[in-house]
């Protein structure tokens, strides 16, 4: 229908360039568990990443063939190129020693740890979080991350909020006041981040204790009422 809303973002690129860009972003996502890019690119890469994880959960020969065709083949960097200041701008699609990264190196991760991580989760394997613009053009930027992974930002933010509230409640009780406990939003986030994570309650408590040792919440001790 003429004038209807497009079903996807073109990203100011033709079809082949757009597909190569998304494959590059998704490959970096599965390698590093989290990437930062523009908001529009993150939302489009999220759709492709979700489909890849669904293929990983199916774990069939057909699914493996389809997933292998999505992962992007990295470029080779010589020793001199890796020492160049421009190396930081090259997509991290090579191994530490500069070898060519192939899709076969990410396939065991997709059909191994990542598949096991999301076996019980019905959907929502990735998350997009808005951040401040990364460049001077002030383009809206975001972080695309794998949920329940080692770099899950919401999990860390929730643990920090719990640790801060515990410290503040201890200060109030020492001064003869009454502890307020966690607010409704924090309790809701705790339930979200621990629902499908393996041993989520134990992992959250471990991170909360770590934040408490770092002194989180002490900076607000002077403004208690």
Care to describe what's here?
The protein is mainly α and 225 residues long. It has helices at 15-32, 39-58, 61-70, 79-83, 107-117, 153-174, 184-195, 200-213, and strands at residues 34-38, 126-131, 141-146. Strands 1-3-2 form a three-stranded antiparallel β-sheet, with helices on one face. The protein starts with 14 loop residues before the first helix and ends in a 12-residue tail after the last helix. The model is unreliable at 86-94 and 221-225 (pLDDT under 50).
Question: Could you give the distance between the termini?
Answer: 61 Å
Tell me roughly what share of residues is in helical segments: 40-55%
Number of strands: 3
Category by helix and strand content: mainly alpha
User: What's the Cα radius of gyration?
Assistant: 21 Å
> What is the count of DSSP helices, taking H or I runs of 4+ residues?
8
Strand order in the sheet with the most strands: 1-3-2
Summarize the main sheet: 3 strands, antiparallel
What best-fitting shape do the alpha-carbon axes yield? Answer: globular
Q: Give the uncertain stretches in residue-range form.
A: 86-94, 221-225
The overall pLDDT average reads 83
Following the backbone from N to C, one meets helices and strands in this order, namely HEHHHHEEHHH
In quaternary terms, these chains amount to: single chain
- Strand percentage lies at 5-15%
Strand and helix map with partners:
Elements: H1 15-32, E1 34-38, H2 39-58, H3 61-70, H4 79-83, H5 107-117, E2 126-131, E3 141-146, H6 153-174, H7 184-195, H8 200-213
Antiparallel strand pairs: 1-3, 2-3
Helix pairs in contact: 1-2, 2-3, 2-5, 6-7, 6-8, 7-8
